[in-house]
Amino acid sequence: MRVASMRLIVRPRLIRQLMDVHGLTIRGVAEQVGTSKTTIEQIRDGQRIDTDAGVAARLEQVLRVEPLSLFCRIRESLAPEADAADVRESDAA
Fold first, then answer.
1. What positions does the domain HTH cro/C1-type occupy (predicted)?
2. 43, 12 in Cβ contact below 8 A?
3. Pairs from 12-17 (Cβ < 8 Å, separation ≥ 24)
4. Which of 36, 71, 78, 83 could form a disulfide with 8 if both were Cys (CB 3.0 to 4.6 A apart)?
């Protein structure tokens, strides 16, 4: 029997808007979060559908928002890509 685990799904549109509002660059955010520019770019552009909880927490601090404001926690299903597609569609609305 498979036990469900939790993961964080990205809300890229909101991340992009907050970076714009605060005048933050990908490089600046990456340095403050302690990750690569590629990771931040992928998160911001919706190319990365999930991320590590530590990166998520640090990104939320940098963007000055409450925990789990930019990421939603979901249960991992047998088809996790379906969950991420649902979130991506709702984020685009």
1. 15-71
2. yes
3. 12/43, 12/44, 12/45, 12/46, 12/88, 12/91, 13/46, 13/91, 13/92, 14/69, 14/70, 14/91, 15/43, 15/44, 15/59, 15/63, 15/70, 16/44, 16/45
4. 71
Element housing 22 (H / E): helix 12-22
Q: What is the CA radius of gyration of the chain?
A: 13
What's the burial of 11, exposed, middle or buried (CB within 10 Å: 0-12/13-18/19+)?
Answer: buried
Residue with tokens 């911001």: 44
CATH number at residue 45: 1.10.260.40
1 is a domain residue: no
Is position 30 within any domain? yes
Contact 52, 9 (CB under 8 A): no
